Amino acid sequence: MSLLLSAEDEQIYRDAAADAWRRSGGSPLHAHRLFKRDPRIVGLDAGTIILILQIAWKLWKWWKEHNVSEPESVQRGDEPSFGSQE
What we know:
Distance between the termini: 16 Å
Helix content: 55-70%
Shape: globular
Oligomer: single chain
Number of strands: 0
């Protein structure tokens, strides 16, 4: 089963993940805490939050492995993708 989000949703969650990553100083655990408190995420149902956290975790892991401290707002070609824009 493919995890596809609308382009708009993917951009919102990517922005929230990138903001959490920047503020965390490269710590996935700190980024996780910041991400869960982000107003763009708060208020979603539990299943959606779990899905979004899985996506964010994959991005944070990729960014950490590739020493990315300032993720760009636009997805790079070699980054994981979860949306409709392939």
